[in-house]
Structure formats: C-alpha cells, structure tokens
Amino acid sequence: MSSPISSSTAVKQPSSDNSPPSELALREIPGGYGFPFFGPIKDRLDYYYSQGEVEFFRSRMKKFNSTVFRCNMPPGPFLARNPQVICLLDAISFEILFDNSKIEKKNVLDGTYMPSTAFTGGYRTCAYLDPSEPNHAVLKGFFLTQLAKLHSKFIPGFRQSISGLFTSLEEELSDKGKSNFNALNDIMSFDFVFRLFCDKNPSETPLGPTGGPKMVDKWLFFQLHPLMSLGLKYVPNLLEDLVLHTFQLPFGLIKSDYKKLYSSFFNSAGPILDEAEKIGIKRDEACHNLVFLAGFNAYGGMKALFPALIKWVATAGEDIHRRLAAEIRAVVKEEGGVSTAALEKMCLTKSVVYEVLRIEPPVPYQYGKAKQDILIKNHDSNFLIKKDEMIFGYQPIATKDSKVFEDPENFVADRFLSEREKLIKYVYWSNGRETDDPTVDNKQCPGKDLVVLLSRLMLVEFFLKYDTFSVEIGKLLLGSLVTFKSLTKAT
C-alpha cells in the first residue's frame, strides 16, 4: 500500500530539479498499490486486457485528477520483485527522469524487471548501467567516438540501403497490389546498421540477406515479451498472461541464433573491436555491447520509428505530401544534392520528424529510482518522492500535454515551424529532451542525432522519388503495421 504524506505535514524541503514554485501546494501523491501480489496482478490484467495501455493511464489520471499518481507497472509477479511506481504523465514532472544527479538508472532500461544477462553474453551492457558506474563512461564514450568517426558514412550508406527498399516496394505493389512496409524496412534497417559498423554486406556473412533481422527480432522478443500482448483472438488472456508476463522465456531457446549474430559482428567489426581493446575494453565485452547497440538500440529503434513516420505522413494527406515534395526538391536542387547542410534547410521536413517523435515516441517508457528525497511539480502541485521509490514516465501521454501543446492528440505537420521550434524541448523520446545532447554523464541515446538525421533522410529519399501514396494501418506487438496500397511516382 502507499505511504503518503499529508499536504499539511511539515517536511524538510529536498532539492528539486524542476524548481517548484513556492505557491504550489504540496499534495499527497494519490493512488496506491493494492494488496501484495493481488494488486500488481489486477493492474497487469487491467493494463493488457481489461483497459489497454493508454486507457489504463488515462482512467487513473481522471480518477485521481492528477498526472502524478501511484500504481503497479507490469510485469509484476513473478518477474518483477517490486512493481510499485510513481507514474508521471505530464511534460513538467516527466523532466525529473533526466536528472541523473537525483535519479538512478541502474538496470531499469526495460522497467521494473531486467532480462537475464545471458542475452548479452553475461555482461550488463551500457544501456543498463547508471552514469555513476565507471564502466558507463568508458563504454558510452567509446561508442560516441565511433559514431563521430562514422559520420561521413551516414548519408551515403543509408541512401544505398534504402534504394533496395524502394525497388522491392514497387515490385510488390506491381505484383500483389500491396506491400508490407515493415518487412522491407526491417531488412533495410539491419542492412544499414550492419554495413555502418562492419563495413560489410550482411549477405556476405552466415546471416545471409534476411537472416539478421529475423534473429534480432527473436532476440528482442525474448527480452521484451513481458511488455507485450499478442492480441491473439483464440488464445485465452489468462493463458497468454501466464506465458508472457509471469516467467522469463529461457535464453537457451535462442542461444544458437544469438551465437550466429554475435559471431557475425565479432568477425566483421574488427577495426571497432581493435579500438575498444586499445582503451581497455575486453574484446568480447565490446562485441556484446556492439550487438546491443546495433540490434536493440539502432535496429530496434528504426524498426519502430520508420513505420510510424510513414504512417503519420500518410494520414496527413496529399497537401502535406505536395508541400514536403516541393521543399525537398527545391532544397536538393539549390544545394546540388543531398547533404547534411541541405537537410538542415528543410524546415517542414524537420518539423514533421519532430512531430512524429512527439506523437509516437519509439520508446514509450522511462524509469528511474530516486537517489534521495525529491520535490517535483506538475502544472498544479508539488509532490514529495521518497528515496528509493521507483519513478515511471509514459512518454506518449507526457508528450501530448495539452498545457504545452495545442491540439495535442492530432498530428500537426508544421507544429514546430518558425518560432514554435522552441517547443522541441518538450519532445521526449531519447531519454532526454530533444534540445539536449548525449554525453557520458547522461543516459540519452548515443545515436539520438543519427536517428533524427535518418528520419529526415527517409522523407527526403521518399519524396524525391514519389509525389504521394496511400497506406493501410494496423497494429503490431510493438508499433504500427504499415501496408502500402498505392504509390505515385514523382512527376
């Protein structure tokens, strides 16, 4: 059960990351956790089956009249020792999760549970380390350095990979009248990531032309299944809940696939692994971290984000398509090609990417544990979070804060144009603000700027070839299913 404080209780004022104004009342954090074991089970069933993810949060916001409240987060028993969290659902309180002086990020990447380190060669990879741990700075600094060295390969490498996607897209539309964008995007994304880090086509390795994404997908599923619902019509909810949300699926079932994936990186990424050894990182540890960065962070992010990008641009309609095509083609003509400088001049294209990251962030969850008593605020009140309490933020609601964004539930392509670009500081998707930069001292995604660049580049390459398009939208385990129904080539 919760252990709240009264708003009239005298408390020693702890430091506050977001400087709560003194005129805001100190409010007891509403909500609770129910009875041990049964409370978390009830919340888990509500979350996956009775209400669904978004309604789970919105119903409690309405019930408690607060964007800050207590609840249990899945998976709960028996995977999570302690599922109790303080939930943050507005743009103001959410920012406390980025303050690593007050929030510990050790082993919280996936939430209140952590997959076995067997999935990462027995190592806690950089994503599970808190910045206070010495190995975090070593590993993250190494990968930030490698990404900087590879900068010149981003645009030509992505253009090479995406050209194959467009060819396959047109062929499938011609043959079948429709094309599964997600499947083609997975192959393209893995191809780009593997070429980037290994300077080799994955088809030249034991992975083959399509084996890589399939192996990574299984590897991701076995780690993230406690956060998923299959939604299968003929599988009883209680049976699915028992299989997916109660126990960790054993690594042994995918051990051979991971070994092949790891070996392909180990044998192909020699120069990067050599550099790791020079600064004191063990070669196998560096490779397991590289597989995680390439597979979980980079490929996994592209797998979720690019279908979302295409979905929202499709639903924006032909007028936005015409405006994007006109801007992109004019700038490319003026600049004499596709370059970083050209991408920076495409204001509508940039705004569209920020808006997709706002309305459907590729990583919806953020977690952290309070290192000390913390006083936070939302728009209306102050709240006291006690040391060692787990804090959880659900980004798809926090980034739709109606007190920050007008018409927050709808996709607005030009939301961040001109003076309104200052609002990108409230776009949270990379474990930080869009205006922040990844460093060894924070937990922001090391590839944050690369993701933004590739998303813009996706739109640029698309609208250099096509005028407009239509899609059919569905739902996947994590993200959107996008099926192309038509394509109109550029006139």
Automatic annotation (TrEMBL):
One of its GO terms (biological process) is fatty acid metabolic process. Its cofactor is heme. Pfam families: p450 (PF00067). It comes from the Eukaryota. One of its GO terms (molecular function) is metal ion binding. Residues 1-21 have a biased composition (Polar residues). Heme binds at residue 445. Residues 1-23 are annotated as: Disordered. InterPro entries: Cyt_P450, Cyt_P450_E_grp-IV, Cyt_P450_sf. This is Allene oxide synthase. The keyword Heme applies. Keywords: Heme, Iron, Lyase, Metal-binding. PANTHER family: ALLENE OXIDE SYNTHASE 2, CYTOCHROME P450 26.
